[in-house]
Each structure stands twice: as structure tokens, then as C-alpha cells.
Specification:
The chain is of the alpha+beta class and about 280 residues long. It has two domains: about 190 residues, no CATH class; about 80 residues, 2-Layer Sandwich (Alpha-Beta Plaits). Helices cover about 60% and strands about 15% of the residues. It contains ten helices and five strands; from the N terminus they run H-H-H-H-H-H-H-H-E-H-E-E-H-E-E. Strand 4 and strand 5 form a beta hairpin. It is elongated, with a radius of gyration of 21 Å. The relative contact order is 0.13.
Length: about 280
């Protein structure tokens, strides 16, 4: 059975991806770069390299750093995984080249707060529409599958590198603004959409064999239970998956592509307290 395409949802996701590229370009060109304050991930690393080697444009650096990762992700995860993430990064690269650099605010702290807020909110909106902004998310997804490490571990590695290089090239004074900026990006990203909050997805299906084959390509593990309908007495397989909310849209499409009649119960996970709060999407 063919998958029903929601063109309205696809259009919205595409517009959000472009909006991210525009807002993050304004944040970098007109706020963060003005005071040598650096964002998180590959965007922050590109800023830092550009500050050290001004002849290398931000657009070029973002292209060089991201293109190999997207080629890798295309081969490993498939086209669906990178579609809107690719649009987000491509629009960011384009806008970084055309948004003029202006000194709108002179105070370093104000520049850091405004620039980081624009980036954090726009990343959160991307997560809210079921895709990421590429870069370190690709590395983290692969390494999480390959080495079973937490996503935050890999984000901390690249952010730690940015902080160390900032200290080496610009001294300890700039570290304060960079750290403040990173905290604001993460806080507002979570405010717009709690991307790292895990949810438990319980899938009731009669096509477990096909779903299991697809779920083996998914980053996170799954637990399979054999159940029986209380009313019909017929066997029903129950598959349980714990995944970050940011990957729900991908998982939902994967499930529906194999079993359009599958029933999904999605529950918010509170790992520390061991509780699950049910909500529906």
C-alpha cells in the first residue's frame, strides 16, 4: 500500500528549514562573528576557523564540513533521513553568503544573547518538524549506533574543542561569551522542542517480521513481546522502542510504510524518575 503524502506538512517542514538557514545566518554574520562569540557544533567550528583564517568564507567552510557528512549519511541512512536536514544546511550556506555583515549592537554580551537565541529557537523549530540541522547530528546518530554512546557525549566533544581553540587563539575572555552562547542555544532549543527527551513508542502490529527488518536500520534498539487480543484471542505482536522525540517523525513514517494498520502509543519518558506520561500525536 502506497504511503499517503502530506504535502502541507512537507511544505511546512521545507519553509522551517529555509527559515533556520536565514535566522542562523543573521545570528552569525550580524551578532556572533562581530564579537568572536561561537555557536555549537559545526556552525561554531566554522565560525572559529573563519576568525583564524578570514580569507575562508563561512559558506565555503560550512560546505566543506557538511558535504562529506551528508554523502555519508545518504549512503548509511538513506535519502529520507537527510532531505530536510540538507535543505536546512543548504539554505544556511546560501544565506551566510548573501546576508550582509553589519554591527547592529556593540555590547559583546548582547550580541551573544541575541545571536544564540536566534540559533537555538530555529534549531528547536527544525526538531519540532521532525528533522535535524545536520552536522554533528549525523556523526552522533552513526556513533550512537556503532559505539552505543549517548548523543550528548559527541556534542560535548566538538563543543569542548571549540572552547579550547577559542582559549588558544583569543584568550580566556572570549570563552565566557562562547559558553554563555552555548548554554542559550541549548536552553532555547529545548524550549522550542525538547529534542533530547526520550519517548517510549509501543507498536501493536500483525506484521512484526517486516517491521523488525526495518527497525534494525533504526538507531535505537527495540523490544518485541508476544501478545494476544483480549477480545479476539488472536495473536498480536507488541514492539517497544525508546527514542528521542526529534526522531519520532522518521520512526512513524518507517512504521506506516510497512504496516499502515499498526497502532502506536507514544509515551513521554521521565528516565530519572522511571515514569511514563502518555500523550498522543
Amino acid at each position: 500500500m502506497a504511503i499517503k503524502v502530506n504535502y502541507r506538512q512537507l511544505t511546512k517542514a521545507g519553509l522551517v528549514a529555509i527559515l533556520y538557514g536565514f535566522l542562523s545566518a543573521i545570528a552569525v554574520n550580524d551578532f556572533l562573528n562581530v564579537v568572536n562569540s561561537y555557536s555549537t557544533g559545526l556552525l561554531g567550528l566554522s565560525q572559529l576557523i573563519h576568525a583564524v583564517v578570514p580569507n575562508l568564507s563561512m559558506s565555503l567552510l560550512m560546505t566543506v564540513l557538511n558535504v562529506p557528512l551528508f554523502i555519508f549519511a545518504w549512503r548509511v541512512f538513506g535519502f529520507r533521513y537527510i532531505l530536510f536536514s540538507g535543505i536546512a544546511v543548504l539554505s544556511n550556506i546560501i544565506f551566510l553568503g548573501i546576508v550582509p555583515t553589519m554591527v547592529l549592537v556593540k555590547d559583546p554580551l548582547t550580541n551573544t544573547i541575541i545571536g544564540s537565541a536566534l540559533i537555538g529557537l530555529s534549531i528547536g523549530w527544525c526538531f519540532n518538524n521532525g528533522f535535524t540541522t545536520g552536522g554533528m547530528d549525523i556523526v552522533a546518530t552513526y556513533c550512537q549506533r556503532r559505539f552505543h554512546k549517548n548523543v550528548g557525549f559527541f556534542a560535548n566533544v566538538i563543543n569542548g574543542l571549540i572552547v579550547v581553540l577559542t582559549l588558544i587563539f583569543f584568550g580566556p575572555g572570549r570563552i565566557v561569551y562562547t559558553l554563555i552562547g552555548m548554554l542559550i542555544v541549548n536552553a532555547l532549543m529545548d524550549y522550542a522542542f525538547a529534542s533530547q527527551t526520550d519517548v517510549m513508542v509501543i507498536i501493536f502490529t500483525k506484521r512484526a517480521a517486516k517491521l523488525i527488518q526495518q527497525l534494525r536500520r533504526f538507531t535505537h534498539g527495540a523490544t518485541i513481546l508476544n501478545g494476544k487480543g483480549a477480545y479476539t484471542g488472536k495473536p498480536t505482536d507488541v514492539i517497544m522502542v525508546v527514542t528521542p522525540r526529534g526522531q519520532l517523525a522518521f520512526l512513524r513514517d518507517l512504521i506506516k510504510s510497512e504496516d499502515p494498520n499498526a497502532f502506536m502509543s507514544i509515551q513521554k519518558s521521565d528516565v530519572e524518575s522511571g515514569k511514563y506520561t502518555h500523550y498522543s500525536l
